[in-house]
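Repro:
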Amino acid sequence: MDASPGPRLILLCGLPGSGKTTLAERLAREIPGVRLCPDEWLADLGVDLFDEETRDRLERRFWEHAQDLLRLGLCVILEYGFWARSERDEKRLGARALGVPVELHYLATPIDELRRRLDARNGEGRLGTVPVSRELLEEYVKLFQAPDDDELGLYDEPPPDRRG
């Protein structure tokens, strides 16, 4: 595999427990790429993961940093969740304005599997994760805007060496 595949933006989209961190860590090693995960940074800084104002500020700063990294020719993996189509569109269009390919990895995980994974994760108490109750997950499901086939068609395919 070429050690410098050129700049590429990778967006990870999915609900809590869908496997975003696992995939992001694997991609960061394999590509290689710079992985930006707001949950981990907030936890490391001792900030409440539910502090939306701080999260928004951090994610804006990450996006500025991501664009700088893309301009430098690096791959960037944004592990935000991207629950809203408008967030995904903003990042896709911003990267395309830089002439950079954009991948969207949508982790469509059945709700029963999300519940199972979150129950297990809640018991671990790992840094950078917040306990997500079944009730909270149900609320998140209502807010989540899953990408449809038309939207998925707006993104670039992963290079051949990373296709499933």
